[in-house]
């Protein structure tokens, strides 16, 4: 059954009747990382959007795992080392992206800042930084890099930003409607919102189905497509101007997905699947993860 308390947070933007009209089961996924519990993923065909059901009351406990490395700087295993190498490369690409926008004050807000690596790169690049990160452990890591992060958006007072970034964050937000409204208020007129999220319409998602690691239930509450992102943000007067690929994600996600599906590490097979996903996406635009450049119009 769809978790109504969860859904109404988003329904405020459209209407409960409209959202539920075509809501139906899509697939069942297991939480491979922490609990091994099963969750239903539901689809709204009008918005081409998936939602996870039910939503646990205590989401925080589902982030406690040595396998969940987005909030750590671990470099112990080969997998961690590869992850960190790719992360450092993509940090440079992200800085190049935000530098491509003509901004007067170079004020940037990073939501879900993790251990502060992206903001550190931005700071070194001349940006005036603000970051939000709910994880106390991650904030401690960031503080050790002299990056002081706020706990949530409510801590930001009387300030608007030229650029706001959410790198693989939006899919984790329970109160989606409220968050989108807050982001719009924090963004200057004609400011740029950059959002990166997994794309459930990608080849690797369709190939691995319920074993696709980027479903990551129940941590990922929402599962987006290009259609759903465009529709959601148009409802609050924001426009998707461009989409960009995150080509490394297909390999990373395929590596995890192979492990979930076969109970074995199959790096070569994962590499082939990731490569095939990117080749197909070069024609369709449906990469494993997409970056959306959204303007506050």
Automatic annotation (TrEMBL):
Keywords: Methyltransferase, Transferase. It comes from Tenacibaculum larymnensis. InterPro entries: SAM-dependent_MTases_sf. One of its GO terms (molecular function) is methyltransferase activity. It comes from the Bacteria. It holds the Pfam family Methyltransf_23. The keyword Protease does not apply. The lineage of its organism: Bacteria, Pseudomonadati, Bacteroidota, Flavobacteriia, Flavobacteriales. This is Class I SAM-dependent methyltransferase. Gene3D superfamilies: Vaccinia Virus protein VP39. GO terms for biological process: methylation.
């Amino acid at each position: 059954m769809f978790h109504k308390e969860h859904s109404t947070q988003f329904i405020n933007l459209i209407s409960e009747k409209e959202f539920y009209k075509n809501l139906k089961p899509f697939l069942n996924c297991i939480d491979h990382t922490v609990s091994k519990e099963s969750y239903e993923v539901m689809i709204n065909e009008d918005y081409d959007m998936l939602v996870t059901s039910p939503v646990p009351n205590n989401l925080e406990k589902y982030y406690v795992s040595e396998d969940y490395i987005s909030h750590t700087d671990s470099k112990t295993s080969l997998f961690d080392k590869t992850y960190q190498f790719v992360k450092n490369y993509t940090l440079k690409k992200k800085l190049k992206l935000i530098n491509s926008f003509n901004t007067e004050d170079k004020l940037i807000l990073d939501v879900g800042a993790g251990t502060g690596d992206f903001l550190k790169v931005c700071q070194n690049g001349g940006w005036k930084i603000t970051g939000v990160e709910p994880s106390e452990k991650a904030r401690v890591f960031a503080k050790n890099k002299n990056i002081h992060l706020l706990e949530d958006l409510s801590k930001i007072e009387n300030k608007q930003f030229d650029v706001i970034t959410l790198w693989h964050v939006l899919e984790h937000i329970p109160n989606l409607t409220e968050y989108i409204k807050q982001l719009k208020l924090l963004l200057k007129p004609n400011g740029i919102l950059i959002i990166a999220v997994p794309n459930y319409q990608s080849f690797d998602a369709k190939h691995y189905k319920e074993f696709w690691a980027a479903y990551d239930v129940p941590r990922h509450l929402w599962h987006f497509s290009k259609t759903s992102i465009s529709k959601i943000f148009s409802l609050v007067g924001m426009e998707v101007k461009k989409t960009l690929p995150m080509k490394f994600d297909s390999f990373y996600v395929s590596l995890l997905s192979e492990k979930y599906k076969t109970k074995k590490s199959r790096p070569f097979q994962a590499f082939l699947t990731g490569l095939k996903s990117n080749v197909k996406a070069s024609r369709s635009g449906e990469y494993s993860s997409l970056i959306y450049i959204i303007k506050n119009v």
